Automatic annotation (TrEMBL):
This is Pseudouridine synthase RsuA/RluA-like domain-containing protein. GO terms for biological process: enzyme-directed rRNA pseudouridine synthesis. Residues 104-272 form the Pseudouridine synthase RsuA/RluA-like domain. It catalyses: a uridine in RNA = a pseudouridine in RNA. InterPro entries: PsdUridine_synth_cat_dom_sf (IPR020103), PsdUridine_synth_RluA-like_CS (IPR006224), PsdUridine_synth_RsuA/RluA (IPR006145), RluA_PseudoU_synthase (IPR050188). Gene3D superfamilies: Pseudouridine synthase (3.30.2350.10). It comes from Phaseolus coccineus (Scarlet runner bean). GO terms for molecular function: pseudouridine synthase activity; RNA binding. PANTHER family: MITOCHONDRIAL RNA PSEUDOURIDINE SYNTHASE, RNA PSEUDOURIDINE SYNTHASE 5. It comes from the Eukaryota.
C-alpha cells in the first residue's frame, strides 16, 4: 500500500561509543597487547594510536583494565576495546516512507544519511532510525536489503521478515549475476529493476549509452576494504543511460540510469568511465578512477581517540553530487505482484516540464 508518513528521532550530541570483543586464539598466544591490536586492527589506528588507547585505559584483559602495552596474551583470555563516545558528523534524521506492507518497507533516504554503521557513522544511520522506530512500536526492526551511497538519495528497500529478506536479497544477486557476455541488453532480467536520476558533467552526445564495464577493487588510503573502480579484472556491471536534458550553459546533462541490481558505486563509476562523472563528485574522475592517482601514502598521525586522522583525499562517503534512486520495479517477494515505487525528485534533477507540473500541483493543493 502507498504511504507517505515520516519518522525520525533527532540524533544525540554524542553516540554511546562501541565495544569490540576478542578471545585470544592459540595463534595469538605470546603476542603483546599492542602487537595484537596493531596487527589485527591495523586499519583502525597506527601503532602510536594503539599505544595511546592502551595507556588511557580503553582496553580490558579478562575484565580488568590493563594499561601496560607489553602485557603478554594467553590463550582463551578475553579482550575488550572500549571505543569512547564521539560526536558524529552532521546527518539528516527524518526519513519518508514510500511504501509499506507486512513484508517490506521502502524508504526515501535523504542525501547525507548513511545506511549501515561504518567509519565515523556508527549511530547516525538509517539502521539506527529503523531500530528506534521499531522499539517505539515494540516490533522487530526492518533490515535494508541493499545499500545507497551516503550522498545518494531515494528508494531504499528494507525487509520486515526473514523470508522477505532472503528473497529480496536474491533478486539483487540474480540481477547482477546475469550481467556479462554477449546478450540483448534491452531484455529484462531478474525480478527487480532500479531507475536513477543523476546530473552528469559535460554534454553527453548520444541519446542512449549502454555501459558494460566490469568493476573491481584497488587499494586506497582511508578505505580499509579498498576502493571500487572500473577494472577489466573486476565483476560484470551493466548500466543503461538515457538523456533527459542537455544544459549547454551549465555544461551538464540530466540523465536517467537503469540498472538491474548494481555493484557498489556503479553509476558513479560508469558515468566517470565514459568521461561524464556526476557533477560535483569529489571522488571519481574520468575513466572510472579516483581523481587522485598517487594514493599510496598513508597519514600515520592519529586523532584524539587514537584512530587515523580523517583522510585528506576524497573517500566514497563524501557528498557533493546529485544522484537519486527514483523508481523501483519489482515482483513482491511473497505474492509476486508487480510493485512500482517512486521517490519524489529533488528539484535539481527535474526536467523543466516536471518542475512546472510540481509547481502547478503545489499551487492547487
Amino acid at each position: 500500500m502507498a504511504c507517505r508518513r515520516k519518522f525520525g528521532i533527532p540524533w544525540p550530541e554524542c553516540n554511546d561509543g562501541l565495544s569490540y570483543d576478542d578471545v585470544v586464539r592459540s595463534s595469538d598466544s605470546g603476542l603483546t597487547l599492542v602487537e595484537f591490536y596493531f596487527t589485527k586492527y591495523k586499519s583502525s589506528a597506527p601503532l602510536q594510536g594503539w599505544l595511546q588507547r592502551i595507556k588511557s585505559g580503553q582496553i580490558t584483559f579478562d575484565g580488568r583494565v590493563v594499561t601496560d602495552s607489553s602485557t603478554v596474551l594467553r590463550v582463551g583470555s578475553k579482550l575488550v576495546y572500549h571505543r569512547l563516545p564521539w560526536k558524529e558528523p552532521d546527518a539528516p534524521h527524518m526519513i519518508e516512507v514510500l511504501y509499506e506492507d507486512d513484508d517490506m518497507i521502502a524508504l526515501n533516504k535523504p542525501s547525507g544519511l548513511q545506511v549501515l554503521p561504518g567509519g565515523l557513522f556508527q549511530q547516525r544511520t538509517v539502521l539506527t532510525q529503523l531500530q528506534w522506530e521499531a522499539n517505539l512500536q515494540k516490533k522487530p526492526h526492518p533490515v535494508p536489503v541493499h545499500r545507497l551511497g551516503r550522498g545518494t538519495s531515494g528508494i531504499l528497500l528494507c525487509a520486515k521478515t526473514k523470508l522477505a529478506r532472503t528473497r529480496l536479497a536474491s533478486y539483487f544477486a540474480d540481477g547482477t549475476s546475469h550481467i556479462g557476455g554477449k546478450r540483448d541488453t534491452n531484455r529484462e532480467i531478474g525480478k527487480i529493476a532500479k531507475i536513477y536520476r543523476g546530473l552528469a558533467s559535460g554534454i553527453v552526445e548520444n541519446d542512449e549509452v549502454t555501459i558494460n564495464q566490469p568493476i573491481g577493487v584497488v587499494k586506497y588510503p582511508g578505505v580499509a576494504k579498498g576502493l571500487y573502480v572500473a577494472s577489466q579484472s573486476g565483476k560484470p556491471a551493466l548500466s543503461v543511460v538515457g538523456i533527459l536534458e542537455r544544459n549547454v550553459q551549465e555544461n551538464s546533462t540530466l540523465v536517467q540510469v537503469k540498472i538491474q541490481s548494481g555493484r557498489p558505486h556503479q553509476i558513479r563509476i560508469h558515468l566517470s568511465f565514459i568521461g561524464h562523472p556526476l557533477l560535483g563528485d569529489p571522488l571519481y574522475g574520468d575513466g572510472g578512477q579516483p581523481k587522485c592517482l598517487d594514493c599510496d601514502s598513508i597519514d600515520e598521525s592519529f586523532a584524539e581517540d587514537g584512530g587515523y586522522q580523517r583522510p585528506t583525499k576524497p573517500v566514497p562517503g563524501d557528498c557533493g553530487y546529485n544522484l537519486h534512486a527514483h523508481k523501483l520495479v519489482l515482483s513482491h517477494p511473497l505474492t509476486n505482484e508487480l510493485i512500482e515505487i517512486t521517490a519524489p525528485l529533488p528539484s535539481v534533477l527535474q526536467t523543466p516540464e516536471e518542475a512546472k507540473e510540481v509547481a502547478t500541483m503545489e499551487q492547487t493543493a
